[in-house]
Structures are given as C-alpha cells and as structure tokens.
C-alpha cells in the first residue's frame, strides 16, 4: 500500500469543509483528523518560539559531542 499523505488547511463554512485532492490521489477510503487552528496561523507556538530563541550549536561543538558519544558507545 502506497500511503500518500495530504495536508491542507480549510475553512469551515456552515459546518462543512471542502477538500480538493490531487489528481493522482487514488485511495477510495481515507482517515480524516480534524484539528482546530488558532485564528492567526502565522503565530508560533510557545515551543517553536523557545526553539528559535535557544542558542545555536556550532559545528565544532556538535563534532565534540559526536566524538564523546562514540567513545561512550564503545563501552556498551
């Protein structure tokens, strides 16, 4: 079975939503999960904002961590 996920945002009008599927979408049955969106779709979640505000790791720091991790994995 080839799973072809489709993600779309739709507006509820009189209790209905209308979704246009791609022409190559061939499934006869689908599962829908309806999740309410905030009024401002561009607003970042607090977790997303936390990630953006967090300090970045340099390539050198990342390599150091990888080396230490590799060394520790030798003891398993």
Task: Tell me what you see in this structure.
With 76 residues, the protein is mostly helical. The chain has 2 domains: 1-36, no CATH class; 44-75, no CATH class. It is 30% helix and 0% strand. The protein is built from 2 helices and no strands. The chain has helices spanning 46-53, 59-73. The longest helix has 15 residues, at 59-73. It is elongated, with a radius of gyration of 22 Å.
Q: Key features?
A:
mainly alpha; 2 domains
Write the layout of secondary structure elements.
Blueprint: H1 46-53, H2 59-73
In total, how many domains does the architecture comprise?
A: 2
Morphology call: elongated
Low-confidence stretches: none
Count the strands?
Answer: 0
> Terminal Cα separation, in Å?
38 Å
Q: How are helices and strands ordered from N to C?
A: HH
> Percent range for helical residues?
25-40%
Identify the quaternary structure here.
Answer: single chain
Radius of gyration: 22 Å
Mean pLDDT: 86
Number of helices: 2
Beta content = under 5%
- Supply the helix-strand structural class: mainly alpha
Q: Describe the biggest sheet?
A: none
Short description:
This protein has about 80 residues and is mostly helical. The chain contains two helices and no strands. About 30% of the residues lie in helices and about 0% in strands.
């Amino acid at each position: 079975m080839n799973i072809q996920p489709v993600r779309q945002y739709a507006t509820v009008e009189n209790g209905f939503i209308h979704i246009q599927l791609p022409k190559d979408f061939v499934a006869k049955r689908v599962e829908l999960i309806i999740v309410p969106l905030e009024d401002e779709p561009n607003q970042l979640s607090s977790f997303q904002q936390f990630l953006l505000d967090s300090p970045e790791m340099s390539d050198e720091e990342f390599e150091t961590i990888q080396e230490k991790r590799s060394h520790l994995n030798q003891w398993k």
